[in-house]
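Archive entry. Fields below.
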Amino acid sequence: MKLGQAFKMALKSIGNNMGRSFLTMLGIIIGVASVMTIVSVMMAQNREIMKQFEAMGTNRLEVYAYLYNGSSVFDDLYDYCLYLNEYVQGVTPQGYLNATVTYGDKNSSSMEYTPQLYLGSDQYSAVNNFQIAQGRDLSKIDIDNYNNVCVMGARAARNFFDFIDPVGQEVRVNGIPFTVIGVYQEKDPNNDYSMDNMILFPYTAARALGQSVDMSQVYVKCRDSQSLKQAKAMIEGFLTDICGDPNDYTNQKGYFYTYSNDEYTDSLNEQSKAMSMVLGGIAAISLLVGGIGIMNIMLVTVTERTKEIGIRRAIGAQRKSIVAQFLIESGTICGIGGIFGILLGTVFTMLGGKLILHFDEILWPSVGITLGAVLFSVFLGILFGMYPAIKASGLQPVVALRAE
Amino acid sequence: MLIEIQDVYKIYGEGTEAEVRALDGVTLSIDRGEFVAVVGQSGSGKSTLMNILGCLDIPTRGAYRIDGQDVNDLTDAQLSHIRNKQVGFIFQSYNLIQSLTAYENVELPLIYQNVPLFRRRELVMDAMERVGVADRWKHHPSEMSGGQQQRVAIARAISTRPPIIMADEPTGALDSHTGKEVLHFLQELNREGSTVILITHDNAIAATARRVVRISDGKIFEDYEQEVDWL
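PREDICTED_STRUCTURE:
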């Protein structure tokens, strides 16, 4: 028999056994779609969490240090970090400004999501992973000259200016004019309480607002996790010299501690790995259940098909013609099921991205998982679709004919 | 000789206590153009004999030559070829494929012969017209009476114009009138030159054949020619 005929025969058989074909496809469709959706949404969720951490800044050391006599350690620490530049990329105080920012009729305190007002150095953006998108960043000169300027996060800029170019605009902070010199790139677009909803002022500018700045909190950005360890040890040594031993309660000079969220990120990573394994397990089970569904449908029809194979053999079909027909038949069913599974899984993944993760952009399914799920179910479908053909075509035709 | 079997055994469970000798040393030759009725009671081995003659089954022991070829030496492809081209089968239970229409059932052996579409259409409609079910070509077996299904099965058997027709109790599931028509048809095929082998338990049906082979307990005990009861 020619291959074209085998194709025609297989397609005819699929058409004549709509119910069976559909049930088989259903097993594949559900298996593929559920695995794709579960794994893709889960992976996106993990990615999102890691991205948030990365956006906040990895390899960042938070230092909290003060002297009981009230003088700031920041200038000394700043100089020391410059000295450590083999390990340290940037250093900034992390201060908070308590003020109201207005622009025209826009008022920060009456906004739905109030922007955070930060005080920092010219290295604030380097430490906190911001990148300048428009205008310019804070400079050392702004800090040294107590300039009344500010840089806005993308979301804060949108809230205040919409379509107006923010650069060069003047906002009023507690009534005092500040010039917007730049806007940072958006780094957290899917979150209403976004890291982008912020305005950064030079820490020295707080003086113009009549506020004293708490300079005891300092962020130090290190080059990598190795240099973070080095820098942490050295900074702790340095601060012990200035503030005294924080663990010594007779110490009258001052106090400090250091913290890096890398430890937290590590444990989060562990957790998300465990989570991946659990959900991967669920996905594998649903694939297996889909596979068993396919298997059941195929096995239920074995007897019927065995008889059919017996008849075909009796009227002169060669073994290989039978096997070819069944291979094409189950391959086609599984292929069609696979395609519908991919379509459905893609839709579900998109819906999951919107409804579960609240993503603004479209969430596409992971290619690797999709291929894996499709190959697995198609493999099962073809295997069990072929099973009666392989078994019955090996029998003497008369034995296959007797199947009832 | 068209068909020659010599000392053929078909033994199930050989050597065990439940050993069954379905064929117990059968020797038989059938010439081209003969009409042979193989007659025996149920369990006598007559169906086993037909299955072996039709290459649907293989003997446990013994030589079988069809058209001079030793069947024991043939590959699956060659055996399929014989079933396809040399033999047309008619079964008691019709053995039509339920999911295919009458036309598609009759067409099947021609597909396995790689007959081109137009020629196939001609041969199928010829065969169906001959047995009088051409108007039923679109119907599925479940939509036809037993007699019609058997006619479709006959059409399938003769669509390839095989030199040998093997019929295993072809009238067993039919009423006497329809049965008679089927037998008449077999006689007609025989007159046109086909070799017909008819398996039956019924002496009245065997009366339509020129030659009668009686079989019991897997052995042939009578083989004679008779006056034919032409239908």
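CURATOR_NOTE: The CA atoms of residues 101 and 138 of chain B lie 6 Å apart.
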